[in-house]
Amino acid sequence: MAGNTLYGAGTGASRQYYLYRKGIEWLAWIGMLFCTGVTVFILLMILGYVLYQGASYINWEFLTALPLPAGETGGGIANALVGSAMVVVVATLMAVPIGVGAAIFVNEFPSAQLGRFVRFLAEVLTGVPSIVVGLFAYALVVRPLGSFSGLSGSVAYAFIMIPIILITAHEAFRLVPVSLREASLALGIPKWRTILWVVLPVSSRALLTGVVLAIARALGEAAPMLFTAFGNPFWNLNLKKPIATVPLLIYTYATGPYEDWHRKAWAASFVLLMVVLVTSVLTRVFLRGKSNE
Amino acid sequence: MQGEPQVTNRPLGRLLTRASGKLVHPDAQVINLGDRFFYTLTRGLAFCVIFLVILLVLDLFRGSWEAIRQFGLKFLVGTTWDPVARQFGTLPTIVGTIVKAFIALLLAVPISIGSAIFISFYTPKWLRPVISYPIELLAGIPSIIFGLWGLFVMVPVIRVLQVWLKANFGWFPLFNGPAVYGVGVLAGSAILAIMITPIIAAISRDILLTVPRTQIEGMLALGATKWEAIWKVALPYARTGLLGAVILGLGRAIGETMAVTMVGGNSFDLIHSLFDPVHSMASQIASEFAEATYSLYVSSLIYVGLVLFGITIIISLLAQLLLWRLSKGRIAILE
């Protein structure tokens, strides 16, 4: 008895309570492990299944040929690949100046109340459903021009990309040391040149990452394309006409009646998934250590 | 370090506003010309963002004006959606959307917060990225791919489950639906749960990692078990942020389009059981819009979009406010 007053080391009621608490601890550990296991397992299963199904169908013809008429086996998705690329490039050209410019304003002129409001708005905008963005692009571009077009798809994508670029750019600028800015200003270099020649180059890596993330996000969106880019079974390089994009093609093929279409949907998903995964892993390597803390 | 630029930058920002004052050296006028132009330019771009949002809201109102004038708020409680009779009411889809989103939360919240706790407290530091990186990765998978997987892999499984449930527990009202489809409320909720789990888990983990280690160590030093320290100190500390993460997940679940369109079973009737097929607002717009043949029809669909936008924007605002209060804007939410 003497000396040994450590909680839980005794006998009787206190010992029992100690064991009870240990049991709860053990149960909690098992429970949390189970949750993590379920999450990782389900998600990896989906990933694995798509990769497996897609890889078994994919070949050179699939990537370089045009779609054949419905019901015929063979053909590819070349037009959708090119279409997706074109729509996204134009969207990037629209979104990057606005996103980065606004981010410069938010970070470099912090005395302005407007900046904080814009940053807050950007966070809220990331929550706007993509289908609503599609409606917006429809009302803004498709209706006045009178036809579905790749251009309207670009507007929709740009709208999705702007808040992502703005937020990542702002975070990137925040990490640029003040001493660098001050050194430049002390040399008599005006503020605008300091921003363009010092702040931007220093944060270029993180900026690029943000843009790539935004592109990867946009590339996978099908909902805003439904009534903007609309899809097109033929070659089209004209952004004023309906144009095929990969995610929308997956939707059309997956919900279609043909067995061959379903296989093509898996293969197209494989391509899309590869693009998303590769960009994600690359940006991770670029910005190593960011989320390790 | 990270908070500092805001403070030390301020005098530089003020250089501009003082440009017209007498204290500035004449040469400074030359400098200020470029600076002023740059300031105006970037401010214009910042205004662009605000302008786009205003344009979005205006466009939605303008597009739906015809339906708003025709049906008013009765649109929200009407239960018939009949393009042939030109009669539109969207209560069933609103109910469908909210029910699906909440069942998804019910499934996803325990699992995702459990994983977040495991990653932030029970995993050694070197192992953390190994577990959390796949979760982050999966938050970026396009929803169309979840939809494809859901349609061809998950729906057949759910169909079997539904047939079994109906055969054995058919007396229970929630299980007494048309079990043969597979697509429906249950499938829609399940795919939504799978999609929002990585989002909630990733944000919750970031939030739980902000809990000061000293507080947990204090508990441990008092003789608490690890779980007691988490339950009584870490979770109360992170409560606001976790709620923000959950609400963010709710917003995503409500606005999610493609996957739900593919497995939700698109019907316009009010739901009575877990097996009933029903539209959600987003899937209704997605599947009908291109086929809407007259302007009132289009206008009604845009009205649905306006309602959806309103709901998600309120949820998003709420989530941002909760998360911002906790992190002072340190946690950027992108997924």
Molecular structure report:
The complex is a heterodimer of chains A (293) and B (335). Chain A is an all-alpha fold and 293 residues long. Chain A folds into two domains: 45 residues; 226 residues, MetI-like fold (Orthogonal Bundle). Chain A is built from eleven helices and no strands. Chain A is flat and about 80 Å long. Chain A starts with 11 loop residues before the first helix and ends in a 7-residue tail after the last helix. In chain A, 49% of the residues are buried. Chain B is mainly alpha-helical and 335 residues long. Chain B has two domains: 67 residues; 251 residues, MetI-like (MetI-like fold, Orthogonal Bundle). Chain B has eleven helices and two strands, in the order ααββααααααααα. Chain B has a two-stranded antiparallel ribbon. In chain B, β1 and β2 form a beta hairpin. In chain B, α7 runs antiparallel to α8. Chain B is flat, with a radius of gyration of 25 Å. The N terminus and C terminus of chain B are likely disordered. At the A-B interface, α1, α3, α4, α5 and α6 of A face α1, α2, α3, α4 and α5 of B.
Element layout with pairings:
The complex is a heterodimer of chains A (293) and B (335).
Chain A: H1 12-55, H2 60-64, H3 78-108, H4 113-125, H5 130-145, H6 150-174, H7 178-186, H8 191-202, H9 204-219, H10 246-255, H11 259-286
Chain B: H1 4-17, H2 26-71, E1 81-82, E2 87-88, H3 91-122, H4 128-139, H5 143-169, H6 185-208, H7 213-221, H8 226-255, H9 258-263, H10 281-288, H11 295-327
Antiparallel strand pairs in B: 1-2
Helix pairs in contact in B: 2-11, 3-6, 3-8, 4-6, 5-6, 6-8, 7-8, 8-11, 10-11
Q: What is this structure, in a nutshell?
A:
The complex is a heterodimer of chains A (293) and B (335). By secondary structure, chain A is an all-alpha fold.
